[in-house]
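FAQ
Q: What does a multi-component entry look like?
A: The components come first, one per line:
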Amino acid sequence: MNLLDRLMHRCRRKSPFLFHLNTGSCNGCDIELITCLSPRYDVEQLGIHLEGSPRHADILCITGPVTRNTLEAVKTVYAQVCEPKVVVALGSCPASCNVFAGSPVIEGPLSKHIPVDVYVPGCPPHPDAIIEGIARAAQILADRGVSEKAKGVPQK
Amino acid sequence: MNLSGLIHFFLFPGILFAVPAGWFYMWGERKAVARMQRRIGLPLLQPFYDFVKLLGKRTPSRHGIEADLLRLWPALSVLSMLGAIAMLPVFHDGKGFSGDAVLLVAFLEMPSICFILAGFTSGSIYGEIGAIREAILSVANNLVFLLSIVTIAVTENTFRLSDLSGGTWNPGHWIGVFGILLCIPAKLRLNPFSTSSAEQEIYSGPLTEYAGAALAMWELAHGLEWVALTGFVTTLVVPAGGPWWFHAIAFFVVSFIQVMLLSTVAAATARFTLQRAIRFYWQWAAILAVLVICSTIYMRVR
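Then the predicted structure of the entire assembly, as tokens:
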């Protein structure tokens, strides 16, 4: 890695912007994610910032088992997040549909529709686990940017 | 263009100072809010990390006039802010770019106009709502902003920036400074006047469709806005005379004190509705209008 690549790697790892998407969650995981921003956990220390627009985000945090109504929204929002990007599935619902598995209105699990990089299991997951998952996602984001450049993926 | 003008544009208070200072003020604002909420807050280099990371994002390809315009607005904002900063009479010696307050007001107003145009150009419904909100808020706060500058100009009997600057003991001067300070939160889109970019309400307002390098330019323009607006107030309150290094240090310190003051207001207040924000500014505008008329009559009689 040359100096510019090292700088970009460091900046991507230190500045992950999140976009949170609820795909039919019971709000348990959503509350735990918002808790991470509170004074007790304070994820801003890691440079993590919750963004209002998916265009600004690097990490897409998805909660919920992916209901039929939200499936198109998941695909649209995933496409709106600019590369390089990482998807974090928060809670058991996006990983396995949890107690909703087998329901006719559930289109999950999430990995059937978009690639998932990090799973944070739990119903709901503990904020510490969410922070660890996002930190791991930030590392993947930084590494992905470098590996894409090495593979010759056009950068603009 | 003289050498002093180039130094003002490129070194101090221009690009070399203003860009890191803008990042530092943005860090100071977020850090102060974090500390007031009993959090540790972000690292010192966070705005720099954000800027570089955004430069490395791959943005969706757009074509046509819309794509050019979307790139033009943040670039225009950055350039106008650099122009405004280069005009500030930091050393009170009449050197650098000479100009009057009208040109400075035009420069300071450019980011707001570009922000509105960006919202409409993006074609996003959230962008358009944010742009309309910004336009209404801009009309409301500019009435007070312009009246404040007119108050100072009438007091000093000139519009030349180098003559307006330097703290004098004239009450009209300080009323004007107070009026400008009242407008800064709206110009910087800070709480309680953050309706135009209300997160979680209209996503990111006019910047909803922005990504990558263009968004990085908006972040940079925002940092430069901090430097230009707080720097303008600083040049009005720091007394003229004294060595150059005193003015350089005072420019930074007094600006940073304003950043802390504005952060406290932002942390302590919730977002105003648009009607409430307009009412707030037009009440102050009425008071300032009366004061301007009184001071004008006083100047004529004297």
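Q: Is there any commentary attached?
A: Sometimes. For this entry: The mean pLDDT of chain A is 90.
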